[in-house]
Write a structure and sequence with these properties.
124 residues; mainly beta; seven-stranded mixed beta sheet; four-stranded antiparallel beta sheet
Length: 124
Amino acid sequence: QVQLVESGGGSVQAGGSLRLSCAASGFTYSFRCMTWFRQVPGKEREGVALISPGGSSTWYSDSVKGRFTISRDNAKKTLYLQMNSLKPEDTATYYCAAATGGSCSLRGGAMDYWGKGTLVTISS
């Protein structure tokens, strides 16, 4: 059974940091590009960071570049998102997702598997 389970969300003040984790099981994690998305109710889902299967390549949206760092531990089958210098506009539910085998994408439609999300709330 495929599972992606996010953790690490919470409430922090602006300028603070959080580290999200995503534990994967039930599929060949080390072969998949992984992406973090976020969504605010009423707004489009946004892909914010992706990482290649081996971890050597990463990409960030302009909205988080320089503040967020995506990483992965293939031995532990875990994906991470280190979020620093958080802003109120970073408030959202954050989801991890596994891309269709052989592809890397920020498009939600290109994902095979999704977690249920973890809520991040940043207060000013």
